[in-house]
Amino acid sequence: MKKKIICIILTATLALSACTKDNGGSDPAPQPTAASTTDNGNQSSEVSGTVTAAQAKLPKDIYAQISSSFSLPELYQGDDDWILNNYGLDASKLEDYVCAEGDELHADRIFIIKTKDSADVADVVSKLNAVYGQLSSPEMLDYMPEQADTIKAGRVVSSGNYAYLLISPDADGIEAIIKEGIAAN
Fold this sequence. Notes:
Blueprint: H1 2-19, E1 36-37, E2 43-44, H2 59-69, E3 76-77, H3 80-87, E4 94-101, E5 109-115, H4 121-135, H5 138-143, H6 148-152, E6 155-159, E7 162-167, H7 171-182
Antiparallel strand pairs: 1-2, 3-4, 4-5, 5-7, 6-7
């Protein structure tokens, strides 16, 4: 019971801090740049190459392929209201998305987002970095020590109108599917 209460409090804290707007102060989440390294040593990079709308798959199609290729824990998939209230992501600016996250026992996150306008990618990446920053905080790593290595190996990446956050023991294989989907012919 105590673990559930802590999880609820942490989830609420994550949701509130991810939704707050920057008022000119410093943003605790690392900002991605091409092949930049985050504070914890993980890569946050932009995938090279250009992607045309006709070539790329939609995030829901990519996620379906991931789900059929990997044995994922039960992941909750958020809708428009959920992603706005919990992560500050405005669905009206997104062409398609999948925001799937684990329960209090699984740190797994697979967020694949395609924006309508490439100008909105930086904002999405910033919000995904805020989520990742919260999940990789010392408090969360202490709360879920058995998931710490998986969380530390997480990544936020952008390519064209796409951005994604991956936290999974299968992150390398999942990322390969995402990259293939983004560049699909």
